[in-house]
Amino acid sequence: MESVSALIRVSLPNYLKNLPIPDSVSGIASLSGQDWLSLVPFVGTVSLIVYVTVQAFKPKVEKKNFPVNLKIQKENAKVVNMVDIEDLGDKVSYCRCWLSKKFPLCDGSHNKHNDEMGDNVGPLVLKRKEPSK
Ligand code: FES
């Protein structure tokens, strides 16, 4: 127990006192390669402690099955949309996020969803190929 006490009371403060921690942000630029190397164990240990602490207190997210479609044609067992190829026009965007008020067409609702959720969903864009000249 004495060795642990000495480690905490003497060795650790001496170690921390000798770390080349700059006094200002601009002092970071003046650190030598040797200074950076001597900071690696300290930064690594602090990072590990922070990571373990965050993991220990992070709320556990229970993964459950959840529906993708929250509101479109819920009265139907399956949402199926049929479109004749001849009716597509030159370009059409179909919703893949299930949030469009014009479903099955994209109305841009995916943009708000992506901003709020950090997601990256987007439409399926069908475009008529330009005739080659
Ligand atoms: S609104 Fe759903 S992909 Fe654009």
Structural features, described:
The protein is mainly alpha-helical and 133 residues long. It is built from 3 helices and 2 strands, in the order H-H-E-H-E. It has helices spanning 2-17, 33-57, 109-117, and strands spanning 91-94, 124-127. The N and C termini lie far apart (86 Å). The mean pLDDT is 91. FE2/S2 (inorganic) cluster binds at residues 95-97, 99-100, 106-110, 121-123.
Furnish the topology, listing elements before pairings.
Elements: H1 2-17, H2 33-57, E1 91-94, H3 109-117, E2 124-127
FE2/S2 (inorganic) cluster binds at residues 95-97, 99-100, 106-110, 121-123.
What CATH calls the topology of the largest domain is: Ribosomal Protein L9, domain 1
What helical percentage do the residues reach?
25-40%
Query: What is the overall pLDDT average?
Result: 91
Strand composition percent: 5-15%
Radius of gyration: 29 Å
In N-to-C order, the SSE pattern is HHEHE
The strand line-up of the biggest sheet is 1-2
Using the 3D structure, state the CATH architecture of the largest domain.
3-Layer(aba) Sandwich
Strands, total number: 2
Provide the number of structural domains.
Answer: 2
Could you list the spans in which at least 5 consecutive residues all have pLDDT below 50? Answer: none
Ligand kinds: FE2/S2 (inorganic) cluster
User: Largest beta sheet, briefly?
Assistant: 2 strands, antiparallel
